[in-house]
Structures are given as C-alpha cells and as structure tokens.
Amino acid sequence: MSKTIIFKVWKFPKLSETFVVNQIVLAKKLGYQVKVLVEEVLEIKENANLDIFKQFKIADSIILEDYDIPKNRIWRWIKGAFLLFKNIVYWPGIYKAFRFTKKKNIQLIYQFDFYRKFRNIDIFHIQFGNNKNPVDLLKKCGFLKSNIVVSFHGHDLFFPINNRIPNNGYYNDLFACSSYLIANTPFLKQKLLELGAPESKIKIIPVAIDLDLFCNKKLKGPGEEIKLITIGRLDELKGQKYGIHAVYDLVKKGYDVRYIIAGSGNNISNLRQKVIELKLEKHIVFKGMVNPSEVVKLLKYSDIFLMTSVRNSRGEVESQGLVTAEAQACGLPVVAFRSGGVPHTLEEDRSGFLCEEKDITCFVSKIETLILDKELRKTMGENGREFVEKNFSEKSVIARWNKVYG
Questions:
Q1: Contacts for 266 with CB less than 8 Å, ≥ 6 apart
Q2: Where is the Glycosyltransferase subfamily 4-like N-terminal domain (predicted)?
Q3: How many other β-carbons are positioned within 10 Å of the β-carbon of residue 117?
Q4: CA 335 to CA 303: how far, in whole Å?
C-alpha cells in the first residue's frame, strides 16, 4: 500500500498559489495517496487550474479542517468535557500539549479529537510555515506519529508575518519536530539558517514545472512589434509599475512595443491609472486572470519576459518566481531585477539579464539590447529552455522528492 501524504494549507485553491497545486500533482504522479487539509475551501469552479483539478481529481481529496466547536459557551464546555473523556487514552499527550502551549484554551481538546483520525498518517506536508498550527504542537507532545515536511515559500520567513505574527521563537517547535524543511532557492535556505533552522534538515528543491505543457515559441518576422510580457499577481511586490515605466522610456525612443500584463490583484486600479497618466493605452494590455493554458499561449506569442518583482515596503521579496522558469521553457529571454531568489531562476547573461532593483535605466537598456538583436533573443531563449530542463523539470526534481517522502 502506498504512503499517504496530507498537504496542510490555509485557503484552497488560491489563485496565486499554482505551485501548491503543482506539488499535489507531483505527489500523485509519484503514486502517493493524497489528501488536502484546508481551513477554508474557495470556489473551485472559478480557479485558474480547473482543468488540472478535474484531471487529477483534486477536489475529491479535500478535507475541511473544522473542529465543530459550538458557538454557545456552555455547550462548548459540555462537548469539550465529553471529548476529553472520549480521548482518555490520550490524556498524557493532552497534558503535555497544555504544558507546552502558551494559549491554554478548550480548543486544544477539539484539535486532539479532530486529528485523532490522522494520528498515524505517513506524512504531513505543510505548505507555508505559518500553516503549522497545531501540527507542530501535536507532534511535539508525541500525539502525531507522522513525519513532518514543511515547504517555505517566501513571505512565511519575513517577520512580522502578514504584518501580525512576531518572531518570538515562532518556528522553534516546527524546526525541531520536522524531518525536512524545504526551500525553493538558496536565498530561502539562507533565510531559514538566519532563523535558526538546522542546516541538516534543509533541502533545496525548486518548484517543478511540467515541460510538456510548454513549447518553444516561433520567432516573429522583421518589422513586427515586439511583445513584452509580465505574468503574476498585481501587487507591490510583483513590481509591474517598473515594467510600465520601462515601456514608457522605450516608446519615447521610438520602439514599437506592446506590453502584456497578465494577472489579477488589488493593485490593478493604480496600474491602470499609471498607464493613462503616461498615455500608454495603445501599448499596454491588461489580460486579467489567466489559466495555465492561457499562460502558455501568451508566452508562445511573446518575445521577452519581464520579471519585475522587487522588495516591497514590508521588506518581502520574491523567493523563486515560478513564471520565470515557465517563460524560459517557452524559449523567452528574461530581463529581471536582482531581487530575492530571482537570480537563481535564470542564467545571467546566458538566458537573461539582471539589473539592480528598481534600476529602470538598466532595465530599459537590456530590453533594448534584446529588441535590436533577434539572434540574441533566439540564443538566450534556447539557453533558457536548456536551463529549465536541467533545473526545474519534473524529471530533475522527482528523485529529490522521492527521497524526502521516502
């Protein structure tokens, strides 16, 4: 019988977390039984990965993490007392958990009862470190027998997390009880080490992409406009405004360019207003939310990928940037800022160019170089495809995940 992996996430499926879906699919392809434990189930029909959900029957794997705690205080305590008696065999673990936790409330009894059915599951794979509760506590007190694997993705290592969780030893128990701590780039590994994670437990495994979904694009003939593209959530960290400013400078220099911005997010109004202010309506197109097949189509008919991510006002940076690998898989050269883990997602001066964060002059110059040199675009695109096949394909990472799960 194959092992069972429970992926623990928060809200699912979130539009911006395709990499979580990719990891679930990879585990299924490896032959593991998969369950997805979520605190809140979002509308699946509206998700960009609907085709993947259907193909791998992911919706059938979802379990809602609902402790079924009565809202009425009296009934809450009555039911809690019943559950405590029901779980009398686990009293030593419950006692330890109450000793270990700072928040001593009745919810812990409900959590013990809920997780009882998962006590001997082979692996808990926590996606984002801040989704650890109460798995780290239940493991620490000896209740859970499962191996714990944690994938960190970026914002979960920048304190205060979500502007509210301070670093007061927040991950100490998780670091101690986990079998493996997964970083998607050397950049995130360094962040883990700075927070006191044991180096022996850290494994660098990038988010894999299915190369069969991507193909090398066809080059355009001379005289046709150059299509630039950025794909990602529309927010401060993704930095699309720097791409807009770069297009403004390119248009002033007389270049015939079209900039495609794909994605949705809370910064859409500001970005649209910036386009209007700079009178770039004829040169910039907002595509909104796109599904994986639409991403492939957009990349196929583009010429240069702009990775515009920068450090945001909270000090957070891009940890990997999966779409950079996807663009290279489609044969696009990349122009990016040297931010966070982005430099690890391309080969500098072979598959793309790097500029210091927010250096628009450099950014424009590198785009201009690629516009003027069709052969360089072709060569860099070929180098990028080769780089991705070696470092980001499912084939290149599958052995590492087998070792972690095995």
A1: 234, 235
A2: 99-212
A3: 9
A4: 11
Query: What one-character DSSP code corresponds to residue 90?
Result: G
| 79-92 pLDDT per residue, tens | 999 999 999 999 99
pLDDT (tens digit, 9 = 90+) per residue, 299-338? 999 999 999 999 999 899 999 888 999 999 999 999 999 9
How does DSSP classify residue 331?
Answer: T
DSSP letters, 52-72, are HHHHHTGGGGEEE------SS
Please state which of the four CATH numbers 3.40.50.300, 3.20.20.70, 3.40.50.2000, 3.40.50.970 is assigned to the domain occupying 4-208+395-405.
3.40.50.2000
Confidence of residue 102 (pLDDT cuts 50, 70, 90): confident
Check pLDDT > 90 for residue 220. no
The reported pTM is: 0.91
Residue 160 exposed, middle or buried by CB count within 10 Å (0-12, 13-18, 19+)? exposed
Residue ranges of the chain assigned to CATH 3.40.50.2000: 4-208+395-405, 211-391
CATH superfamily of 211-391: Glycogen Phosphorylase B; (3.40.50.2000)
Please, how many CA atoms are within 13 Å of residue 124, restricted to the half-sphere of its CB? 27
